[in-house]
Design a protein that fits this description.
CATH class of the largest domain: Alpha Beta
Shape: elongated
Oligomer: single chain
CATH topology of the largest domain: GMP Synthetase, Chain A, domain 3
CATH architecture of the largest domain: 2-Layer Sandwich
Distance between the termini: 69 Å
Helix content: 55-70%
Low-confidence stretches: none
Order of helices and strands: HEEHHEH
CATH superfamily of the largest domain: K homology (KH) domain
Length: 128
């Protein structure tokens, strides 16, 4: 199976959906932040490994705690994934922190601040 084959893309999508469901609904670890999302999942073509990119909307301490909680629940997550998805091999999951959503939120805030500042300056210039 090639890396970007239709089958591999479908498997990636299904694994991402199931990991999201398992993390949000089944794991009761208090270290895992409620605003945790699975951004993407990349399953290797041989179905042995999976990189799960996780995003946590919170402080760096909450992000580290969430990553620790997911690492400690690794066995349970793999077992639940094996029950929900029928694959020849259940991939070994490696959780990676993804900062792209947080980066996008911060950039959006900065753009809004700049636009508000420009509008304020324009209104001051028109008054004079």
């Amino acid at each position: 199976m090639r890396k970007n084959s239709v089958k591999n893309i479908r498997i990636n999508s299904e694994v991402q959906k199931e990991l999201s469901r398992i993390i949000s609904r089944e794991i009761k670890d208090p270290r895992i932040h409620p605003m945790t999302s699975v951004v993407s999942a990349q399953v290797a073509p041989d179905l042995k490994t999976c990189k799960a990119y996780i995003s946590v909307l919170g402080t760096p301490e909450e992000q580290a705690d969430t990553l620790d909680g997911l690492q400690s629940a690794h066995g349970y997550i793999k077992r639940a994934l094996a029950k929900s998805i029928n694959l020849r091999n259940t991939p070994d999951i490696r959780f990676i922190m993804d900062q792209s959503i947080e980066y996008g939120v911060n950039m959006s805030k900065k753009i809004d601040e700049i636009n508000a500042d420009l509008h304020r300056r324009e209104s001051e210039e028109t008054r004079q």
